[in-house]
Specification:
Helix 2 runs parallel beside helix 3. Helix content is 48%, strand content 14%. The protein has a 6-stranded parallel β-sheet with strand order 5-4-3-2-1-9, with helices on both faces. Strands 6-7-8 form a 3-stranded parallel β-sheet, covered by helices on one side. The chain is an alpha/beta fold and 228 residues long. The protein contains 10 helices and 9 strands.
C-alpha cells in the first residue's frame, strides 16, 4: 500500500491517537518512535523542535514503509512543509493556520492539520482547505467541554485536540466527538524520572491507545438503541 490522502485520513481516524514526539535529541526521538510503533500505534508525529527532525522523519519512513504513517508537527512555513513531505511526512500539523502551509500540503496531496482555537479560526482553517483541525491549546481553555461546544455549530469538522490531553481525560474527549487526540506530554513524561526511555514510552503509548479503544467501545454501546 502506498499512502494516499484517503488512506492516511483513515489511519488517523481508525487509531484515534496521534503520538507527538518532542525530544532533546534526534536519537531520543527515534527510540521513542520505535517504542510507539512496538506498542501497536502506526502513527508518529515528529515536531520540528526535535534536532534534525527532517532526518528522523526520513528514517521512520524508510524503516517502516507503509506500516507507519509519519507526520511532521510545528510546521510554520511552506519551505519546511515541503522539506518534511520530501522526507516522507504524510500529514502536516501546525499550531496555527497559515494558508501558505496548507496550500503547500494540499499541492503535495498530503493531509493538512492546521491549528485553531476560536470559532472564527476554526472556520477560517476549514474554508482554507484543512482536512482536520488541531484545537490547540485545548486543555487550558476547557478541554472536552470546549470541544463539545465547538461540535455544536461545526458537527462536520474533524477535530484533533492537543495541549493538556491526559490518559484520564481521553474518555471525555472521545465522548465529545473528536476524530482523534494528540498526546505529547503524557506520552513522554508520564513518569518524569524515565522521560524518553523506550520502555516507559512504550508503556505510556499502550495505555493511551487502550484508553482510546475503551472509550470508543463504551460510546458505541451507549449509542446503540435500546429495546424495551
Amino acid at each position: 500500500m502506498t499512502w494516499s490522502k484517503q488512506t492516511a485520513l483513515a489511519r488517523i481516524g481508525d487509531v484515534g491517537l496521534v503520538p507527538i514526539i518532542r525530544t532533546v535529541s534526534a536519537e531520543d526521538a527515534w527510540r521513542a518512535a520505535q517504542a510507539i510503533v512496538a506498542a501497536g500505534i502506526g502513527i508518529v508525529e515528529i515536531t520540528m523542535g526535535v534536532p534534525n527532525a527532517i532526518e528522523v522523519i526520513e528514517r521512520i519512513a524508510t524503516q517502516y514503509g507503509d506500516d507507519v504513517l509519519p507526520g511532521a508537527g510545528t510546521i510554520l512555513d511552506a519551505d519546511t512543509c515541503r522539506a518534511a513531505i520530501s522526507a516522507g511526512a504524510e500529514f502536516i500539523v501546525a499550531p496555527n493556520f497559515d494558508a501558505r502551509v496548507v496550500d503547500a500540503t494540499l499541492q503535495c496531496g498530503k493531509v493538512s492539520i492546521p491549528g485553531a482555537l476560536t470559532p472564527t479560526e476554526v472556520v477560517t482553517a476549514w474554508h482554507g482547505g484543512a482536512d482536520m483541525i488541531k484545537i490547540f491549546p485545548c486543555g487550558p481553555v476547557g478541554g472536552a467541554q470546549y470541544i463539545r461546544a465547538l461540535k455544536g455549530p461545526f458537527p462536520q469538522i474533524h477535530f484533533i485536540p492537543t495541549g493538556g490531553i491526559t490518559l484520564e481525560s481521553i474518555p471525555e474527549f472521545i465522548k465529545a466527538g473528536v476524530a482523534a487526540v494528540g498526546v505529547g506530554g503524557d506520552l513522554l513524561a508520564r513518569r518524569p524520572s524515565r522521560q524518553g526511555e523506550p520502555d516507559a514510552v512504550g508503556a505510556n503509548a499502550s495505555a493511551l491507545l487502550a484508553a482510546v479503544r475503551s472509550a470508543r467501545a463504551a460510546n458505541a454501546c451507549r449509542d446503540q438503541p435500546t429495546h424495551g
